[in-house]
């Protein structure tokens, strides 16, 4: 990693990608859990892998770790082809993993669990991490709350100081304070050169900390953007207060989506140019207006259609 | 890289202590009744034709060697310990896969082959504990009964029993990698070892079907021959070891190819 140069950072090439998926496909019967997914995660970025539950995020992660075999296509993790077991096993010395379901030996205490992973991989950063994330080390894991389990998971994922950390829904079960702590920690790790692959169905956190995002739906990658591009593409969140009722047929234009017209208030996402919106609105008696960045949730809705509330 | 071996060994400790205690108590019960059946056993041997006794695997029942080889070892070692080894091995992989512990283990730089081998290697715990405890119990019990037994033969009956128990473990580990549900894998392994034990016993009763027993592992471990005749069937033990290695290879080959 030390040989990395500025040129690599501005123009990533195939060789420098920390993770590269190339037509990665996993099929279960008729179901395409991953359908020819291709993208690359560059060194030192936080990559958000976004999708509703059941979209195929965990399948991708398990393929990357060699827990599943691809039906077609392949991927490389730290330069190792996931189809080459030995190479991948070696590469995993520099990988940390925080799964969505944390399988610990329930009878052991947190300390004993960490001892196990320390023998398996090393633990040069254990003490430092335990100052940030504090699971009750002397209690058996079976008595842990969801949040404590997650914190133990975070410690084991980072304690051998890996170059790449793959996290599957890392904040689930953490209270907001600990989520913030994790987000700050991940940003520091990123700045220190660690690459973070971060799957989530929670858009706000992806929006907060990820540098780039890949969106997966029904096993297919539907978008690969920087957060800024994604927000731009998503349009503006607009709320207009009118002096009197308006005719919806006249008021609503093709660029407005998700329109809610209640009494004298209109809320919509505007996907066109800002100047056009202003020109349109001056025709009406507007008493108040609020234009802001949409939540990623709103953007997300456009990719997933109306049923995103149920699946997300 | 022995982290898995170490953790798995510690995990087996509790079950091992329980089983060892149980089998020691059972052996003590057997030894306690020995004096009272000793006379009847002699009568039994006079009444029945020799070939029937031989087929039952019962020889010299009125001697302590015959009693150990014909009663205690077939039951305590071949059946109960065999079932335990199959049962515990059947849970080794399947449980970790089921609880997703395997995901975390395999996210480290450890190969799947190594996982299987380290898990099986952890069986040294019950092997050593059971052998030593049973050996101690029998030695003590025999001397308390005022009998004596050939120490080398008694040691050999334990040593040559190890390959047999490993085959049982091999059966368990194959089920453990093939079947997804822990309970199913354990029931299948336990059931198969029991059925094999039964088949061997039944096959010996009927000369026409005796060949059926050649596929059962217990056919290659004869405590009576070891204790009464001091016949150490090293070749049979070797065959059992080969069988164990074959089962272990099969399990490993399957495990490295499967999706988790």
From TrEMBL, chain A:
One of its GO terms (molecular function) is ATP hydrolysis activity. Keywords: ATP-binding, Nucleotide-binding, Transport. Signal peptide: none annotated. The keyword ATP-binding applies. Residues 19-243 form the ABC transporter domain. The keyword Acetylation does not apply. It holds the Pfam family ABC_tran. SUPFAM superfamilies: P-loop containing nucleoside triphosphate hydrolases. Belongs to the ABC transporter superfamily. This is ABC transporter. It comes from Natrialba chahannaoensis JCM 10990.
From TrEMBL, chain B:
The chain crosses the membrane at residues 12-34, 71-93, 121-145, 151-175, 187-205, 237-256. One of its GO terms (cellular component) is plasma membrane. Coiled coil: none annotated. Keywords: Membrane, Transmembrane, Transmembrane helix. GO terms for molecular function: ABC-type transporter activity. It comes from the Archaea. Pfam families: ABC2_membrane_2. This is ABC transporter permease.
